[in-house]
Amino acid sequence: LTVTGGCEYMTTNGIAIVAEVLAGGEQAITNSYYQIFGGGVYAYNCSKLTFDRVAVTGNRAYTEYKSSADWGGGAARGGGCCFVASDVEMTACDVADNVLDFLLDSVSAYGAGMAVQSARVVADRCRIANNQIKGDKKYGQGAVYGGGIYQRDALHKSTFRNCLIVSNRQVSANNLLGGGICLYGSYLENCTIAHNGYFASGATVAGSGVYDYPCNGANWTWGAVTNCIITGHGQDIYGGTDYGMKIGYTSYLTTGGSAVTSIADPEAAHCITDDAAPFARKSYKLNKASKVVDRAWTSYSWLTRANVDFYGQRRVYGAGPDFGCAECVPTGLMLMVK
Known about the structure:
The structure is a single chain. The protein is mainly β. The chain has no helices and 37 strands. The protein has strands spanning 2-4, 7-10, 16-18, 21-23, 26-29, 35-37, 41-44, 49-52, 55-57, 60-63, 75-77, 81-84, 87-91, 94-96, 99-102, 108-110, 114-117, 120-124, 127-129, 132-135, 144-145, 149-152, 159-161, 164-166, 169-172, 176-177, 181-183, 187-189, 192-194, 197-200, 205-206, 210-212, 224-226, 229-231, 237-238, 246-248, 255-256. A 9-stranded parallel β-sheet has the order 2-7-12-17-22-27-32-35-37, with no helix packed on it.
């Protein structure tokens, strides 16, 4: 089933969307106060909203040019999907090729692929790829948060597990934060975040892979990045203990912001910072010679041989599980006859 024009779910309970394509949706801001949510999917105040093998592709949320008298305030959120005050589960979904355009003065943009605001999302084996936030440098835009995913509100912890977050883009003349994902205290578990980028002229760029926003609210608690591969960015991670994010059993090359390398958690000793080629050729599957093979933290209850990785392969193979969304599994069997 292909649904064009976008979907909206308001104050619902127990809805399951299975094996559908949500494509070609558009949401536009044309009034004098600028708030726009979800080009393909918008969910507000929903519980037990489930997406199973759903493709959210080719959608767009955008602002329109206005006269200078109308400018000011507001935000654009979620070119592909936007979840607000909701409880959402996503399994094997594809959120790709969505666009978030913002063309107005002082308008900030959040999450070209997915925006999560005061909501809890659990995403397993999902691809967030080739989404783009586009600004117009003729205007003084606000900041850009999350080329792939933007997640805010550490009171409602979200979890992204076995996900592939790649090739998302930010284009603006202002601050660019989190080309792959911008998160406020949620969890990244066994994700691969690679080759997200930006095009900017004179902009401040931080965390082209992962940007950890400070969790400084009185009731906010830290999130964590564990068993992940973050590579192929000018700055793989921005953040650290001063910002509240814990990083352990993770492979990355470049950092910024408060000292990621001085993390006090015991898991920090298991990070790998010198594996420049973890992937097999032309793939996000693992190179069998990568240092991340068999090195993952094993205490997650879901990380067992009964589970599968992003590609549907057995999750634990060999001496132990691997970093990233893909387990390193031999492609063939060699028999030697003597």
